[in-house]
User: Fold these one by one.
Assistant:
Number 1:
Amino acid sequence: MKTYLLQSLKISVILIVLLSGIYPLAIAGIGKFAPGNGDGVTVMYKGRVVGYANIGQKFTKDKYFYSRPSAANYQADGGVGSNKGPTNPDYLKDVNARIDTFLKHNPGVTRAQIPAELVTSSGSGLDPDLSPAGAQIQAARIAKIRNISIDKVNAIIAANTEQPLLGLFGPPKVNVLKMNVALDELK
Amino acid sequence: MNTEYIGIIFMYLATIALAIPLGKYIAKVFKGEKTWMDFMAPLERFIFKFSGIDTHREMNWKQHLKALLTINLLWLFYAFFCLLFQGHLPLNPDANPNQTPDLAFNTALSFLTNTNLQDYSGESGATYFTQHFVFMFLHFVSAATGFAAMLVVFKAMKDKTTEKLGNYWDFFLKSITRVLLPISFVVAIILAFNGTPTSYKGKDTVIGLQGDTVHVSRGPAAAMIAIKQVGTNGGGWFGVNSAHPFENPNYLTNIVENITIILIPIALVFALGFYLNKKKLAWVIFGVMTIGFLIMLFPSVSAEVGGNPNIAHMGISQPGGSMEGKEVRFGPAASAYWGITTTVTSNGSVNAMHDSMMPVSGLAQMFDMMINAFYGGIGVGFLNFYIFIIIAVFISGLMVGRTPEFMGHKIEAREMKIASLIALLHPFIILVGTSLASYVLVHFPNANWGTKPSAWLNNPSFHGFTEMLYQYASSAANNGSGYGGLTANNIFWNVSTGLVIFVGRFLPIIGPIAIAGILASKKTVPESAGTLKTDTATFGVMIFAVIFIIAALSFFPALALGPIAEHFSIK
């Protein structure tokens, strides 16, 4: 037992150096050459950082594309999902209220047009994306409030839509922050 | 066919395509044959020399267990004390506090045992020091522990009538230097180039486009996320795990991470075939595991893609399926696929919140963990399956009146007692834990603890019960995923799941090693016409039946109260 203890101690010390020290430092070194230099990729507007491309942001003003509802309120130091079960009556009431609010702000849109992600909260609470359909049904509202043609808004959606990986794998999506920066840059 | 389905089919086929050559490579490494990774040999020799280990000294099964348990005990103390004092230790740019003793107890045990149940959130409950020097270290060595334990059993199956079963440290170290570390390195680089942070900078504060101030947690996450997946660990850098857009930035990283979740567990099945030179046996095992996996996968994917009927009643469209707790960039198919792969293996990382998934998915995920042998965790998945093989051999032997033999060794009362105990232990700890929690919840809802039992659950009714059942199933299976709605960071849950995790890890390692060790030391019986063939489809069906009967009979009543009842309550 004593020999095992001594051997265990020594091999643990050297493995801690290798696995907890050298390995992540090597990855950090290589990460310097990655986009964002390993600090996370930021998005700029008028020369200042307005957020991280991958981290969703709260957008509630009608002149912007809304983000998805978030249980974390988009606080990116504590992402969290709602963890509400699919049959929870309180949760279903919340979803219904979100639908009503959305309809009030988007006259002309019918219930059947609202994609589910606009009235359900994401897993991380920091989801940066919408489905293209989730952006398109907001276009009329944004065009009206900004007094621009709906084609311009749709062009922004199209320009920011990311197709499935290699055109084959996964759903298409569109980054909300990037679209909203593009909207502000229109002027 | 839509791109979400193509995505998951691709993930599975790519995994198999990688797992077969990887299995072959692993068998070569541990048979001592030449491989292209031999450039690691000088490093290994240095580590052995430094540690005073002579790898030529072979051990018997008891010595293997002594070495395994000694070093695990050491890590437990190390992890516990680091977590207890993490606030005072270096590399804490976000000034996060110490963990409380009960949380540190749970967290240390959880990472030690490859479980990674996380009752804290990485952003606020751990420091860069504990993330790397405790969690990531344990990610590697706990996976290597399971790996080495499995190799002892492999070796015992291969060599006839011997006490000598190789050297534990040799198995342990080489599984890190030849398998876990190289794969993690590649995965970490892929993550880094797709947006996962790698630098040691702390939180950033930015003012968003709309004028809100946001604090963004960062940190050297890529290295840890890689081994979290490769080692079937699952404990992520951020609280929401691989749903977090830094931890899993896009569909490509999702493919890579999801492949690595089941890559080594599948590769090890093939490794067995190459190592023993019994490829047919490996295919039978793989077949049984895969059928079990697919039976769980189809209903879950179809439920998530189909959407939540309760939301459909509100008149909105769910072309993207049920989206509560899911990320747009993955969509429901890849989220359901991940949910099943992470629970059949003992990984436990998530890319969507399981608590918000449909009851059918919850049922499938819990069933995965209750069986815990369809692919399974690194090494331990096979060890669990080995127990089922032993039982199946014995039962088939009784049925057809042949001597129960496996790999030329007679299975007798002592081995069967161990196998039965281990097989029954799993349902025992899950069901006792859940009933204890339910009892406390019903009879002492307002007990004056840190968290009142009445505040434990985030959802009412059947779903609330499922939150508790899931937590114990996940702990016992050393899985570590959770129904996040459960308020688990309090004394009751930290301690009770900590104990379940501990028992659920070490006894199922000790049992199979003991059986294999005892069998290997017996005289071999030459194969005759009376020998039960174990590498046939018929025997595969037999194993499947044994697994299904043990799991279905023991867990069905509990499942009926949770997800099954919830499913039928949906109109």
Number 2:
Amino acid sequence: MSVATFSPDSTIADDSIVDALKQRFGDQAVLEQSTLTGMLVLWVSREILTEALSLLRDMPEPFEMLYDLSAIDERLRANRHGLPDSAFTVFYQLMSIRRNRDVMLKVALHEDDLTLPTSVSLYPNANWYEREVWDMFGIDFRGHPHLARLLMPPTWNGHPLRKDHGARATEFDPYTLTVEGQDIEQEALRFKPEDWGMQREQGDTEFMFLNLGPNHPSAHGAFRIVLQLDGEEIIDCVPDIGYHHRGAEKMGERQSWHSYIPYTDRVDYTGGVMNNFPYILAVEKLAGIQVTERAQTIRIMMAELFRISSHLLFLGTYLQDLGAMSPVFYTFTDRQKAYEVIEAITGFRMHPAWFRIGGVAQDLPRGWDRLMQGFVDWMPARLREYERSMMENAIVRERTRHIAAYTTREALAWGVTGPNLRATGCDFDLRKQRPYSGYEQFDFEVPLGGNGDAFDRGQLRIEEMRQSLRIIQQCIDHMPAGDYKADHPLTTPPPRERMLQHIETLITHFLQVSWGPVLKPNESQQMIEATKGINSYYLTSDGNTMSYRTRIRTPSFPHLQQIPSVMRGGFVPDLIAHLGSIDFVMADVDR
Amino acid sequence: MSWLSPVIVASLIAMLQALVILLVAVLLGAVMTVVERRLLGLWQDRYGPNRVGPFGSLQLIADMIKIFFKEDWIPPFADRTLFVLAPAIAMASLLLSFMIIPITPDWGVADLNIGLLFFFAMAGINVYAVLFGGWSSGNKYALIGAMRASAQTLSYEVFMGLALMGVVAMTGSFNMRDIVNAQQGLWFVIPQFFGFCTFLIAGIAVTHRHPFDQPEAEQELADGYHIEYSSMKFGMFFIGEYVGMVLVSALIVTLFFGGWHGPLLPPVVWFALKVAAFLVLFVLLRAALPRPRYDRVMSFGWKFCLPLTLINLLVTGAVILIADPM
């Protein structure tokens, strides 16, 4: 695999991809847009979309993963010179593991004809993404197998991510729910197998439809999955999400660049500052800020600490889903130790919102290294104990070996990333492949699995915690001196010391704290290796104090979409084991 | 007081004994709910319930008050008769089984010459509680739980009986007192080690204790067959499970660990200590083990335990014949 250094700012020179597309569709069919996303952004017309996608998917060194698919309401966007006329733009971000690069296709749509051909036959994970776009923007995908609302309630009116849809409760009538209204809502949620092309019976067998969730001890939050059962064998299943939807993307359009940071914390609520990371990096690309080495290292250290904390939660609940009741208490003891360090450094526990545009909120407190070292010394023996008592336990192995196994190929087709992808043996970790924030300076390994089953997904995360501890150790040993904030006019809030020196800096400080910084119109994106897979923020700035469009691509969303493809033919306990092994939180799915 | 003939006195004493044993069994079941939580807390680096009374000793009373005053709800879609009957069976069948257990040389309710068979019969009836509860609730999770319970209990009862046949053959009687007396020299756990192992496994399975709690399997079935029960009806299932634990522990002690036999201490203390040791073992198993998959539990029963008990019985028979060819 080529490990090309990923340079976000330089325009990509090579362009076999553009050449291939132009050769096929003519020079006029492809328009290149220059952005700060670090990838090739191409506008194509609706007519050639399907062919272009299949060309990219089937070319040598293919773009085998549909990484993201969403849309932008462009109707109020002022700064879009040189771009095709468009009311709604749908974008398809494709990823190639072997090339280690991405390409984004954009399609312009006009208000009177919001339709596109579906891509489900090319990329199976387009299914939910297209449903989301339908739900949020009202764009119709012709040929989609079941174009129903995904995140909003089935009874909802309107498409929330359109610019003319209200964002705040005060823009709507006060909410009321009558008994009749409740009955209507309940009825709308009733599962009708026929809608999904399922049979109620076959031959002599009458199937049972079991509604698992949204309240179920093993659903890890408000997640619902309807099972078609023959005895305890799962014939088919339909995951249903949206119960945890809070409109994080819409909020991005109403918060200043700075005041949106706490919202990111709550996307993957077990990841803490790990969520700030991609957002802040994307904003810094727009702002053109180069942060100090100290800030970079502090960020890595805190992110890795949260990775351990999240993996510990995973390990405890994963084993609990396998019926072992004790481990979760031990891992929570460890998490408490991690939180003591996090609390001492950031002042908060779960949602520190601690990264800032241009740095972090505060410098490390005195004595942080002693605290952190205490945690790093505490963990290895515990991890060994978990391995010996649980991962080597015959029942655990029997419950997870060869359960819900999938290959690298299947994983990529479904958009699976992170530890779940690496469990299949695919060596793709963004910290190595596309180092950000200085990860290239650290010495660590990327653990890989072999079978891609529920066991590997568990074992691999224990190994990842060890590697994170290695990274933290290096941070402790080699923490660079210097400022914790960049010396840049857009650093928010600006360093306070300088505010007191001069009227100019005082005014800047005041404006940035009251209105927020203004970022130049452009688009940027940053992917990071988050706790559960690849998390990215795709930001569109229209030259304002807030984002024009904030697209949050989370890893858990495709992971859940993949469930039916690996669970058919399994038993109910296998499903529970698989749910435990995915490591998802519903906030990360629904956003 | 001429009516106080020796017969009447004897029956009065017997009734009193029976009443005491009944109360102790129920109370022990109830106390176990708290003891278990405290023990789990100890092993899981946490406190467990320690707020009510000194060291949480009055937790049981708080639980009782709560469970008695909860709304006793019967779902409108449930089959009322069976729904009400199920917890009663759960509790009664297990309590009745205590009848056959000889606690000390003079204590015990009934001295049946078919003692063991009576226990098997009661364990068989106990399945109906789960089956009725699960079916009458009109809930799919409860139904799956009931299905699992009946399949599991059926398979495990097959070899539970066979596991004890070695003991019966060595004693030459089904009577529990005879069995205890036959262990004066050597506890049956040594000659009947495999019988003990398989009976322990079957005992856990029959009481639906972890790791054989397939019918409840919180992570999968969200409490299984008693999901729709509330208040004291749930309480009866709940306490019933612990009574079952006490019962199986008492049986293991009686059949394999010499019952009340032991040096120095009075018989009743020995009996209580041995039973307590097994109760703790039950809790420890729950704290330590993950849950195997349901179909594996079944195949383990049929493919491993059943042949093992058969071989054990065969060898025992052979040894008896060789040692004492009539």
